[in-house]
Amino acid sequence: VTGGNIGAGSSTTTQSSSIFAIARQLVIAMVVLDTYQYFIHRFLYHNKFLYRYIHAQHHQLVVPYTYGALYSHPLEAFLGETIGAFVSFAISGMSPRTAIFFFSFSTIKNVDDHCGILLPGNPFHLLFRNNTAYHDIHHQLYGGKYNYAQPFFVMWDKILGTHMPYSIEKRVDGGFEARPPKVYYKED
């Protein structure tokens, strides 16, 4: 170490901190995390053994709520969250500081997706099609084979035919409900 820069990286290991480099890293991390989590989520749901003994714990929540976002079997948390985080971190090339922001943001987004409240003007709902209503459909009894995507985009659901459209309908007793077209829950 020279020049008294103890702890500072050399110029060959210093990460670019331009806004464009950080934005690129965040977008790459979002796509990688979404891809990883879609396939893990779908696999855990369709493998009868893994669903019964691992993923079913999360699906005990038919009506999602905020604290249920991370309610899962420890093995599922390790496979889906920990390994998914590592893969997206490694592929995107994020600095540790950018990673802290990204994983905090994705955790908050995941909690919002499971909160069961579709608030007008919610910035997550304005920026992402994958939102509270979208994931509520997956947790409903007839929606389990659909809307696996988490936490940002719906591209894999659309590409692989697991996208279930929905409409927001006003409840008689107040509030709103995400409902799929009747054709989806007649076939199940």
Following the backbone from N to C, one meets helices and strands in this order, namely HHHHHHHEEH
Number of strands: 2
Instruction: Tell me the fraction of residues in β-strands, as a range.
Output: under 5%
Gap between N and C termini, in Å? Answer: 65 Å
Largest sheet: 2 strands, antiparallel
Number of helices: 8
Task: Tell me roughly what share of residues is in helical segments.
Answer: 40-55%
What's the structural domain tally?
A: 1
Query: Could you name the ranges where pLDDT drops below 50 across 5 or more consecutive residues?
Result: 1-13
Instruction: Give the radius of gyration.
Output: 19 Å
Report the average pLDDT across residues: 82
Strand order of the largest sheet: 1-2
The coarse overall form would be: globular
What would you call the structural class? mainly alpha
Protein name: Fatty acid hydroxylase
GO biological process, one term: lipid biosynthetic process
GO molecular function, one term: iron ion binding
Organism: Corchorus capsularis
Characteristic terms for this protein:
188 residues, mainly alpha, two-stranded antiparallel sheet, 51% helix, 4% strand, globular, disordered N terminus
